[in-house]
């Protein structure tokens, strides 16, 4: 398959050519797959009404078919087509946080979307991105677009066009280049089929931020123990580079018998650089241990970098202390490191 690319990085300076938009719209309508940028990560988009398109998403990613997809929209008016019985509290949160990096799981109205997109569930996760390019594409195409992260299943999610191209060139119809994703981690997923609501996947919109809008609306228990995932990233291995990765909180616990320090990378905040062994490689995670937003933004790019650098055969990465602000980062990191962590107090 030939994969076409479109460069929309200068959308603020000029609108894309009509021919490009018509081509993208036609591909989506005909069941093709096009990766598009969002503020969280790049998504692999397909028409959520088209069963063959959604099937192709799972095949292109090598993704298990019981792992549900998030449907992306550009307007709340689209909700009436495929959702039902959305609570007043949920609508309040949608109006407050959309467009933005949060997905809401709501009751599904049968018959509009294809059955495959929900993974066999009676609910659907839906989101309205804020990324200028991603939202512009959704507005022009005017279809509900199912869009998991645009990477091979299990691999680190893509935050750059180059990440998508590396994983999916030749496997999809097209890729839209729209600069680096601002957030860097996937959206918060809030299960609104129950009340209090439950966070099915942590992201940059935290429990406290939600409860600042509707007090006492989020269950403190957010761990779903079920073989049937209701949101992406709940059941299967995710976000993992091929390079062995170990989470570290205490440098005194690092093995001292390593023979090839020059092939070991330490991914830590700049203010911890002085603790990195002299012969090891240093990769900046963020400016300091308080800058979780920068760490979130940089995480996936760093994981991609590990696999592209033949001079790194093992990496240690900084683990933040447990807090509401670090939940999303540590959720992704624990999966990326396959739970491998050197125990000990924070540095």
Textual characterization of the structure:
One of its GO terms (biological process) is tRNA processing. Residues 18-205 form the YrdC-like domain. InterPro entries: DHBP_synth_RibB-like_a/b_dom, Sua5-like_dom, Sua5/YwlC_C, Sua5_C, T(6)A37_SUA5, TC-AMP_synthase_SUA5. One of its GO terms (cellular component) is cytoplasm. It is found in: Cytoplasm. The chain is of the alpha/beta class and 347 residues long. The chain folds into two domains: 4-213, DHBP synthase; 245-342, Threonylcarbamoyl-AMP synthase, C-terminal domain (Rossmann fold, 3-Layer(aba) Sandwich), CATH 3.40.50.11030. The chain contains nine helices and 15 strands. The strands form two sheets. It has a ten-stranded mixed β-sheet with strand order 1-8-2-3-7-4-6-5-9-10, with helices on both faces. A five-stranded parallel β-sheet has the order 13-12-14-11-15, covered by helices on one side. β2 and β3 form a beta hairpin. The longest helix is centred in the last third of the chain and has 17 residues, at 292-308. It is globular. The termini are far apart.
Strand and helix layout:
Blueprint: E1 4-7, H1 18-29, E2 34-36, E3 43-47, H2 51-61, E4 70-72, H3 79-82, H4 88-97, E5 102-107, E6 123-127, H5 132-141, E7 145-146, H6 161-168, E8 174-177, E9 188-191, E10 198-201, H7 207-213, E11 245-248, E12 264-268, E13 281-284, H8 292-308, E14 314-318, H9 327-336, E15 341-342
Parallel strand pairs: 1-8, 2-8, 4-6, 5-9, 11-14, 11-15, 12-13, 12-14
Antiparallel strand pairs: 2-3, 3-7, 4-7, 5-6, 9-10
GO molecular function, one term: L-threonylcarbamoyladenylate synthase
Enzyme class: transferase
Family: Belongs to the SUA5 family.
